[in-house]
Predict the 3D structure of the following.
Amino acid sequence: MKIESCLECVRCSKNYDINKIRYLCDCGGVLDVKHDLSAIDGKKLKQTWENRWGLKRGIESSGVWRYKELIFDAPDDKIVTRQEGNTRLYPAGKAGKYAGIKNFLLKHEGENPTGSFKDRGMTCGSTAAMVFGARCVACASTGNTSASMASYAATCGLKSVIFIPSGKIAYGKLAQALAYGGITLQIEGNFDDAMTLVQEVCSELNIYLLNSINPFRIEGQKAIGFEILQQLDWNVPDWFVIPGGNLGNNSALSKGLQELYTLGIINKIPRIAVIQAEGANPLYSMWKNGSPFKAVKDPDTIATAIKIGNPVSWEKSLRGIAWTNGVVEQVTEQEIMDAKAMVDAAGIGAEPASCCSVAGAKKLVESGVISPDASVVGILTGNVLKDPDAVIGYHKDELRDKGIKGTFANKPFNIKANLAAVKEALS
Ligand code: F0G
């Protein structure tokens, strides 16, 4: 089942050859991979995907390449995969009660090979790098993209160059970038500065850019939605709730849903709620006020993964929100960390940015946008181990300088090594 594809500008619809490297349209708009779906039989395709479910090895055992017909027509010997995806969909437990939703599931993308959803985009992006014959790849990152890129580059022998805001990414992520051998440049400036710089560097030095401005990254990330729906036997939930930073992931989710709907693989489109941190909320401001896009100058949030003021994919994101009759919400620092405490205490665990999904869902239930009886899937984007400082700071109630109380703190005790001290502590 082969399909014709091209690159298409989200702003002016101009088309470009998919076999040539390009990230932006001449008009400055971001590009989509556009597939001609007219030749595809949706029923047959769904059966093909069902037949691949549970494969033990091989390219199609990946939770991205299982859906390869709608992802990327790359030759097998160029595909760079770590069997990414295949992540679990958990009942939200305590976090569901906290959000006030009876039928709440959490898709844990932190269970990917490098601990975040980025691996789904990266398997596709690094495959594109191999197809284009690149030798070196680069990205700007708040930490997870760089961890993922460094790993995938290492597995296929590419050099990787990482631009991160100095001192502003979580330790687990910095550790991964170094461990996997990425050339790590800590720049004086924030993520948005790094993003501008990496684009200039890639075009000057002929390096392949692997941020989500790269349309192939988005194609891989679409598979999150495909896999959730397959786990639900193609029963469509009422809502998806997802954090928003550079806005690639929600754009990918809506694009994938739109394609499944066009093919008749699903018969309704779920609504998408994109959740931003209050201190890094350009999409929320725009959506709420109906105003033109305006970057947030000095974004700030404890959820460092989404500390982004000038997201590259805002146009794609808004388009997806319109397609899905979606909404945008913002959450405070306290709301993020309290929701995280609940996700963690449910035994699931995720990094702060991920927990915007739960904090946002709770807020949208309280404001009557999401019904408590609705079926809701929240996306947890990164692993709890990515940011141990945030966990320990909260549980020791040491985040007061950031205006965050340890509402549900589980403080550690320091005790003498004897039975009496243990008894006292346990009482
Ligand atoms: N959650 C986590 C854990 C992330 O790492 C990111 C983005 C997001 C949510 C937001 O996703 O950007 O597609 O809207 N992290 C990027 C990075 C920017 O560099 O790792 P988005």
Remarks:
- Residues 116, 118, 141-145, 212, 243-249, 305-306, 351, 353-354, 381-382 surround F0G (CB under 6 Å).
- The longest helix spans residues 191-205.
- The radius of gyration is 21 Å.
- The mean pLDDT is 97.
